Automatic annotation (TrEMBL):
UniProt cross-references to SUPFAM superfamilies, sorted A to Z: AraD/HMP-PK domain-like
Entry keyword annotation includes Lyase: yes
Organism of provenance: Roseomonas nitratireducens
Ranges where the Class II aldolase/adducin N-terminal domain occurs: 1-159
The protein's name: Class II aldolase/adducin family protein
Amino acid sequence: MPSKSGNLSVRDGDGFLVTPAGLPYAQTDAADIVRVAADGGATGRHRPSSEWQLHAAVYAARPDAMAVVHTHSPRATALSCARRGIPPFHYMVLLAGGDVRCAVHATFGTAALAEHAVAALRDRRAALLANHGVVAIGATLAAAVTLAIEVENLAGQYLDLLAAGLDPVLLDDAELAAARAQFAGYGRG
């Protein structure tokens, strides 16, 4: 498990709370979390994550995002390094809103990366970041973490199919619509 790669945030009024830059997770506690205001000003005893612009851009573009999780999980990152998204080979892509797109490449920690991530997240709740990792959003931090884990799982399944030399059969629009309808009541009573 990486000691300090990736980051997460939660919306906080007109700004957000984000993990600090470069601090190993095992050494991070609640007092280390940094508040970033809507104007980008940060308060706390550490600098905000180098990806604070990504988080800020997602919150500005997506009122439905209450939490953002960015990971460098191994299999999703491997796909991102091939600049490949995750096609609808399994109905669980619907948790992300559909196929998981791979954003255009940009250097980490830049406004360009933030802009490309927001574009890849259009109508989606997760995206890969080219040569970088994955970003997932949710109505809660737990939901965003769960989605990031599911994207990693899907990436692993997809890579396993490709490694076996198999061409994944993609679900068509009707099959995805039927699965989407099944999800409508999923997990409720």
